[in-house]
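TICKET: design request
STATUS: open
ATTACHED STRUCTURE:
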C-alpha cells in the first residue's frame, strides 16, 4: 500500500464504502490520513442512575429488566427496553433498529451512553450508544475521535479504516530536518498524524494539532511567497499615468477624502505606473469608504483606454455599485454594464459582445463574471470587493481574463497589520484607518425582548423624521422547534403593529433575484420605511438614510457578523442607532454582546471576540474559502504562524512543504450567495 493508492486498496473498503468516502472528499489513502476528527469524546466513569443530571451526556451501567419490545408507531419502528442499576430505572428507545431485539436480552448488563431526559416522571435515553462492560472498560479514558460523517458511513467504519493504514502513518517521512523539530519543540509529522487520529491524551493531541497547524501555515506562506515572486515578474502591460485626471475627479467629489483614502489612491497610482503589475489589498472597516478608492483606480485605467471589472459577492450589491458608479462617472463618457446571474439572456448577449469588442469600459458583476464565455478586449484592472467572500482561485480566474491586469482587492476584515502582512504576503497593503468626517458614532444598546415595544416606537419616530430602518431576523420562515424570529411572520406582525402607517417589507435569500432587486431599489428610493431582512444585506449595502439597525436574536450571530450588519447604518451624517435584542439572556451572551455596545471599532471587536471564544472562526476568515485551514487557527496557533514565517525566512526553498496534502487554498463556491 502507498499513500497515493485508492482507498479501495485498504482491506475492508469495498466499492460501496469507497463511494461513501468519495462523498467526504476521501479518494486516496493520503486523503484518509488527512481526514481529521472534528471532535474527541472521552468516556467517563459510569454514574449511578439516581445521580445523573437531566440534560447531560451520561454514562450508565444497568441490567435489562424488561423484555425488548419492537413496535410500530406511525412510520417509525421503536425498540424499547428498561434498565436498572439498583438506584433507578431508565427507559431506552431506539428508532428503526429492530435488530437490537437479537442483541439485548433480559438479565444482561450493558453500559449506555446518551443524553438523559425525563418524560412522565421516568428517566429516558433516546438512541443511546451501547457497549459490553469489558468493551467499555477498554475504551474508557481514551479519547475517541468523532469524524464528520455522511449518510451511510459510521464513525466506526472510518476509525477501522484508519487503523488499517496506521503502519503507513508511522513511516511517513518528515520534511523538516530533525534539528528544526528539536529546537522548536515540534512533534514529528508521523507522530502528529498518529495523535490526531489516536490521541493518548490531551497534551499529545494539542502538540499534534500544533505541528499540523505549522505545516498548513508553512505551506500557505511558501505558496503566497512563490506567487509574490511570480507577481514581481509580471510586466506591466497597462501603465496608467493619469495623476492629474484623478486629482480632478477627487476634487469634484461631494466630500473630501480621508487621509487613508487619499493615501490608498496615491499608492494605487504609483503601482499602476510601475514596470510590474499592481497587486494590492485595500483594508478598511465597514463604512470607511473603499468604493470611492476603487472608483478612482478604475477611472485611471479607463481613461488610459483599458477596461475594468469589479466582482462582488451578491447581486444586490452589484446593482447598488452599478448605480453608484453611474453617479461617480456621470461627467465622463464611460460605458458601464452590470452582469449578474439573473441578467436576461438578450441583455447578457449584448454585454458579452460589447465586452469583447471593447465598447463597455467597466463591468460590475457577481461570479457571473468568471464564466468562460466572458471575454474582454483589454482588461486593465480587476477589483474584488468584499474579498473574504471569494476564494483565491476565483480572483485568479477573473485576472486571467486579461493579459496580466492590475489587481485590487478590498476587504473589511480587520486583521491586525502584522498578521495581514503574513497572510497576504503576495499583496501590497493599504489600510484606511479613519472613518469619513462628520460621522456620528453609532449609539448601541443590548436589550432583552421586553424592550421590543419601545424599539418599535423609537423606529416609528425615526421614520416620522424621514429616516429608515433595518430589522434582522435569523430565519426566513417560522420553525416550530426553535424560538427564533423569522422574516416572514415578523413582517406580518410588524405590519399589524404599525397598522400600515409605516411601510414594512421583507427581504430574504429565498426570493427571486428580481424580487430582491425590486425591494432593494424601493428601499433605496425610500418607498419602504422598515426592511425586515435576513443577513442577505450583510455585505456592502449602502443606504445613508437608514439610521436604525435592530437585530433580533443577536445571540445567534458572531460578533464579527453583528459588526458587519451594524455597518449598514451610520453611513451618513445623521445619528444612527443599533439595537441588539438578546433573546437568551444568559450572562455569557450578555457579556459577549456588551463588547459591541462598548465599541464601534472592528479591530477591537475582533480581538475581544477572540478572547471570549478563544478559537474558531475569526471574522469568517477561516470559513470563507479565502484562507482555508483544516486545523490551523489564526489565533490559537499564532505562535506557529510566526514560526512558519521565521523558518521560511531562514530556510527559504530548502524546506519544501509536504506535497502529500491538498492545496489549502481551495475554491469554495458554496460561500457565494
Ligand atoms: P465601505 O468601505 O464599507 O465599502 P462605502 O465605500 O460604501 O464604504 O462608503 C460608505 C459611505 O460613505 C458612502 O455613502 C460613501 O459615499 C461615503 N463616503 C465615502 N468616503 C467619504 C468621505 N471621505 N467623506 C464623506 N463620505 C464618504
Ligand atoms: Mg463596500
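STATUS: resolved
RESOLUTION: sequence designed for all positions
ATTACHED SEQUENCE:
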Amino acid at each position: 500500500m502507498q499513500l497515493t493508492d485508492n482507498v479501495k486498496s485498504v482491506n475492508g473498503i469495498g466499492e460501496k464504502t469507497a463511494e461513501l468516502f468519495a462523498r467526504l472528499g476521501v479518494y486516496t489513502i493520503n486523503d484518509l490520513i488527512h481526514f481529521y476528527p472534528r471532535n474527541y469524546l472521552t468516556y467517563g466513569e459510569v454514574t449511578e442512575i439516581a445521580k445523573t443530571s437531566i440534560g447531560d451526556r451520561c454514562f450508565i451501567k444497568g441490567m435489562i429488566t424488561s423484555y425488548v419490545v419492537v413496535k410500530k408507531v406511525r412510520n417509525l419502528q421503536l425498540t424499547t427496553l428498561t434498565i436498572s442499576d439498583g438506584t433507578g430505572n431508565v427507559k431506552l428507545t431506539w428508532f428503526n433498529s429492530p435488530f437490537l431485539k437479537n442483541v439485548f436480552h433480559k438479565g444482561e448488563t450493558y453500559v449506555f451512553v446518551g443524553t438523559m431526559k425525563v418524560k412522565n416522571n421516568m428517566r429516558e435515553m433516546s438512541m443511546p450508544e451501547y457497549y459490553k462492560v469489558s468493551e467499555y472498560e477498554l475504551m474508557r479514558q481514551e479519547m475517541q475521535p468523532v469524524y464528520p460523517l455522511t449518510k451511510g458511513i459510521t464513525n466506526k467504519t472510518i476509525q477501522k479504516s484508519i487503523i488499517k493504514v496506521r503502519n503507513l502513518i508511522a513511516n511517513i517521512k518528515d520534511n523538516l530536518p530533525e534539528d528544526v523539530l528539536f529546537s522548536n519543540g515540534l512533534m514529528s509529522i508521523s507522530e502528529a498524524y498518529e495523535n490526531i487520529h489516536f490521541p493518548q491524551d490531551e497534551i499529545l493531541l494539542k502538540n499534534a494539532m500544533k505541528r499540523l497547524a505549522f505545516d498548513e501555515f508553512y505551506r500557505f506562506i511558501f505558496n503566497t511567497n512563490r506567487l509574490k515572486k511570480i507577481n514581481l515578474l509580471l510586466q506591466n502591460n497597462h501603465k496608467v499615468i493619469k495623476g492629474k485626471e484623478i486629482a480632478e475627479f477627487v476634487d469634484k467629489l461631494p466630500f473630501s477624502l480621508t487621509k487613508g483614502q487619499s493615501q490608498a489612491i496615491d499608492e494605487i497610482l504609483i503601482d499602476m505606473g510601475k514596470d510590474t503589475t499592481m497587486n494590492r489589498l485595500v483594508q478598511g472597516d465597514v463604512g470607511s469608504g473603499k468604493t470611492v478608492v476603487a472608483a478612482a483606480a478604475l477611472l485611471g485605467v479607463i481613461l488610459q483606454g483599458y477596461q475594468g471589472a469589479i466582482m462582488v459577492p451578491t447581486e444586490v450589491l452589484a446593482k447598488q455599485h452599478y448605480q453608484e458608479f453611474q453617479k461617480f462617472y456621470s461627467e465622463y463618457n464611460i460605458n458601464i454594464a452590470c452582469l449578474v446571474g439573473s441578467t436576461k439572456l438578450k441583455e447578457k448577449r449584448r454585454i458579452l459582445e460589447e465586452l469583447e469588442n471593447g465598447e463597455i469600459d467597466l463591468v460590475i458583476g457577481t461570479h457571473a463574471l468568471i464564466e468562460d464565455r466572458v471575454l474582454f478586449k483589454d482588461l486593465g484592472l480587476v477589483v474584488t470587493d468584499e474579498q473574504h467572500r471569494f476564494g483565491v482561485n476565483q480572483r485568479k480566474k477573473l485576472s486571467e481574463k486579461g493579459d496580466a491586469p492590475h489587481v485590487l482587492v478590498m476587504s473589511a476584515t480587520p486583521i491586525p497589520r502584522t498578521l495581514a502582512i503574513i497572510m497576504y504576503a503576495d499583496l501590497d497593503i493599504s489600510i484606511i484607518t479613519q472613518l469619513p468626517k462628520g460621522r456620528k458614532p453609532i449609539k448601541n444598546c443590548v436589550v432583552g425582548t421586553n424592550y421590543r415595544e419601545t424599539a418599535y416606537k423609537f423606529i416609528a419616530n425615526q421614520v416620522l423624521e424621514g429616516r429608515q430602518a433595518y430589522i434582522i431576523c435569523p430565519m426566513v420562515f417560522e420553525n416550530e422547534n426553535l424560538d427564533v424570529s423569522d422574516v416572514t411572520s415578523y413582517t406580518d406582525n410588524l405590519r399589524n403593529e404599525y397598522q400600515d402607517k409605516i411601510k414594512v417589507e421583507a427581504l430574504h435569500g429565498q426570493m427571486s433575484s428580481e424580487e430582491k432587486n425590486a425591494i432593494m431599489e424601493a428601499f433605496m428610493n425610500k418607498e419602504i420605511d422598515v426592511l425586515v431582512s435576513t443577513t442577505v444585506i450583510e455585505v456592502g449595502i449602502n443606504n445613508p438614510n437608514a439610521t436604525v439597525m435592530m437585530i433580533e436574536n443577536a445571540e445567534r450571530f458572531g460578533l464579527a457578523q453583528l459588526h458587519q450588519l451594524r455597518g449598514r447604518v451610520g453611513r451618513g451624517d445623521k445619528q444612527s442607532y443599533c439595537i441588539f435584542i438578546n433573546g437568551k439572556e444568559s450572562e455569557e451572551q450578555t457579556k459577549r454582546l456588551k463588547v459591541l455596545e462598548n465599541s464601534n471599532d472592528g479591530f477591537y471587536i475582533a480581538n475581544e471576540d477572540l478572547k471570549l471564544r478563544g478559537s474558531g472562526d475569526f471574522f469568517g476568515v477561516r470559513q470563507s474559502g479565502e484562507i482555508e485551514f483544516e486545523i490551523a487557527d489564526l489565533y490559537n496557533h499564532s505562535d506557529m504562524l510566526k514560526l512558519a514565517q521565521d523558518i521560511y525566512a531562514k530556510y527559504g526553498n530548502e524546506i519544501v512543504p509536504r506535497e502529500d496534502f491538498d492545496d489549502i487554498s481551495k475554491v469554495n463556491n458554496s460561500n457565494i450567495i
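CLOSING REMARK: The chain has a mean pLDDT of 88. The first strand starts at residue 39 and ends at 42.
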